Known about the structure:
The structure holds 2 protein chains of 2 kinds. Chain A is an alpha+beta fold.
Amino acid sequence: MMLGSTLLLALREIRRHIMRSILTTLGIIIGVAAVVTMVTLGNGVTASVQDEISSLGASNFIVFPVRTTRGTIRPFDEADVRAVEQQIAGVKIAAGGAGTSATAFYNGQDWDTRIEGGTNPLLEAQTIAIKEGRAFTRDEEAAGKSVCLLGLKVREAIFPRGSSPVGARMRLGNVSCQVIGVMEERGQGGGADDDDVVYMPLKTVQRRFRGNDNLDFFVVKYDSAYAAASIQDALVDLLRERRLLQEAEPNDFNIIDTAQINQALGAVTGALTAMVAVIASISLLVGGIGIMNIMLVSVTERTREIGIRLAIGALAREVRLQFLTEAVVLCALGGLVGVGLAFGASLGLAAAIDVPFVFDPVINIVSFAFAAGMGIVFGYYPARRASQLDPIDALRHE
Amino acid sequence: MSAQPLIQMDGITKSFGSGAAAFQALKGIDLTIERGEFVAIMGPSGSGKSTTMNILGCLDVPTGGVFRFRGVEVQKLDRDQRSLLRRRYLGFVFQGFNLLARTTALENVELPLLYRGEKKAQRHAAAMHALDQVGLVPWATHTPAELSGGQQQRVAIARALVTQPDVLLADEPTGNLDSERSIEIMELLCRLNGEGITVLMVTHEEEMASYAKTIVRFRDGRVERIERGARSPANQGTAA
């Protein structure tokens, strides 16, 4: 018998028992949908984490002071940053930053936001791009001019849509300031919204808002040809020396390696995705056993039909192929519906939990193929039983 | 081939079970059936008529003896070879109609052609022709549940005819029908026999058997008597 006829028979049989077919396939549908959705969302979470990390800048150390056992915090200053940049081999950029918070006013609108103080090198190290306008000039940085770059949220909050805020004068607290540019979208970073921010020259923030030369942190961008660990060791040694720490005293500062965070977070999300995929695979397996169960019931229920087919002249392998085809077609249809369902579900869920939707063709194809393969595995035994029935007994079966 | 009888049974025995529990259903059947015959097999239950019918239908093999169908020794064939024999040369009609439920008359009739791998257009044409032979063309798209018993049996006959078999085997074809429908079915079988198909029928009703050209009576696993009917103008080939 030709494959076309076999498929036709299988589809007729599925249509004849449409409700039972749907219920049988439900396990496969849910299993495939769960696997594909979980992996797709996992990919989305990974992508969003990596996006967040890359906003910290790749191959960067972030250095900041921590509270000592005596309860004090000793801030870094520009001299520390210069020393790091000049004395440690492999350091490309070292740039400090300091922040505060203030209310932004423009044209009767106001908005509570953060102010970040930094320099063009810090913008570069943090991979912040300018969307409109320009970055700071050397003069603006050196003189601590009152100019600023807007984050997207601040721009939306107080500036009218459709017109460029570049060139406008706004007020931050009681400091008047000229808008020279707007930053590209930065996303979430370190628990804060990096788009709800106004960026000013470091000197301006230090003088006009904080009244000191302290830095909150500094970023060290290193040449990736150098080993991160050796640069980190050199950094610790230099900073301990500059801060006159005794042998027994612990570091009163912390160094974060963004590449390490990246790896660690990648490993965590990867492990989570794998775990959820395993759990979902179990549901797929249960779905497959459900298929076998129903196929076995179906063979018993259709004993007489099998007898008729054998009497008419069906070969054992044709009966086997028919039942196997039915199982595979059921599973494949279930897989197809599951993949479709997963597409919708992951699209919706990705939007709901605010991660990007990353379509992964491999997991879709693999899940579908796995579902169809389960039709073969779990359909084989019932199909074999059907094909081995004795036609006379089968015809007599009530 | 034409020199040989269509069906030849020599000393056919059949036992079920083994050892002390063994039961011998057939104790040596000799039977020759020529092409174009209409044979009714009769006998009380347990006389071996159904067992003989199963062997004649190549559904079962004898324990002993030689059964030749078209000169081929069927007892030497395996399961699949016998399936191919049924597919090519035999059509079955059962007491319980045995149509596929929730499947239209047309699809039921097409079924044997699916196993032959015939193209859709040919399948359809052949099935409609077979339905025409039994007068059910207007009912082609109805499912068994929508048909009367007589109509269902006619669909079953169409299914048996669709492959243009040499032999139609009917096992109590009127067993589930009232007398009026039974007569319709018997007249249909007579007509088909007149068109050249060999008909073998098991029945326990004398009235139905009287339509046959030859009546073979079974008793206790043996052929008791062979009666040549008045309806048979060219009845030459029965031997005990």
